[in-house]
Amino acid sequence: MTSSSALPHSVSANSVSATGAPGTVASSLDASHPLMDGRTADSPLIQAYRGRKPSRRPVWFMRQAGRSLPEYLKVREGVAMLDSCLRPELASEITLQPVRRHDVDAAIFFSDIVIPLKLAGVGVDIVPGVGPVLDKPVRTAADVAALPQLTWEALEPIREAVRLTVAELGTTPLIGFAGAPFTLAAYMVEGKPSRDHLGPRTMMHADPESWTALANWAADASGMFLRAQLEAGASAGQLFDSWAGSLGLADYTKYVAPASARALDHVRHLGAPLVHFGTGTSELLVAMRDVGVDVVGVDYRLPLDEANRRLGGTVPLQGNIDPALLSAPWEVLEAHVREVIAAGSGAPGHVLNLGHGVPPETDPAVLTRVVELIHSIPA
What we know:
Helix content: 40-55%
Distance between the termini: 22 Å
Strand content: 5-15%
Number of helices: 15
Order of helices and strands: HHHHEHEEHHEHHHEHEHEHEHEH
Shape: globular
Largest sheet: 7 strands, parallel
Strand order of the largest sheet: 1-4-5-6-7-8-9
Structural class: alpha/beta
């Protein structure tokens, strides 16, 4: 489903240096993995991701596990965000909550894209009302060279949380995720969230060697994070590039796509479906597909029929209900959901999702009703 010329060399999933040469690829999924033992291979989500006709129309929501749920707020009381991600029992419980409540067709692993930084030893925290904040931005060659390396052993809390979750999910697949290298590196350069991501965009051109080294470090950290989830039991993986929409196509292709491909190299051999999603990336969809993925996520800005046209009808799509309409009158929201389904009908496969994450003020009952509507429409 991808352009073979765009696929890079295989990268080791072991710890590598920011500028070091990749090693060899590890083995595939264990026979007891949910994709291998029959639990999730025929699930609606995996069937749609693989371009096959599912038994029912699959749907899940980005950020479905989190602030919109009262049960989430209750279990998170007094627990810092990153701490909640690193307590396996808690992370598992949060991941499972929306599956129980909404009957969605997949769980999305509850974590944060900066967890690989935290586990590597980079000073980072989630500041309420701000977002990820680093103790020290990474802006020079010396800064990149001084970055600690993420080890496989450090990822054990992630693997344990996935194992606990998968044991409870049964035939419902778990989706693993990681932040794409550009988004991760953008936080590292700025040291905090940014409106225009001027720092990383400048670094690409002003100091391309340091940028490449940083992007490769982020790619290996994200790739290892995703591999830990997939090998422990996740049935699919999604790479989130939240800030790629700040880039033009030329910069994305030259300075970002190789790192995204490198991150995915850590998990290609596992055989799980891989999804690539970004916000504001309508002009980048083909390049995002060409890093080597099975499914392309589309945000709310571009109709799915147009996305499918731009992609040449080559890959299943995921999306793209506008989160803003979750608070609209039901008849407006229902009409919109039906329009999204119709627009996605020409793609090789279609998984319903939002064109971004669930807003924290969303009424959970509305999400449940949307799921019921989607499941009532024949696949």
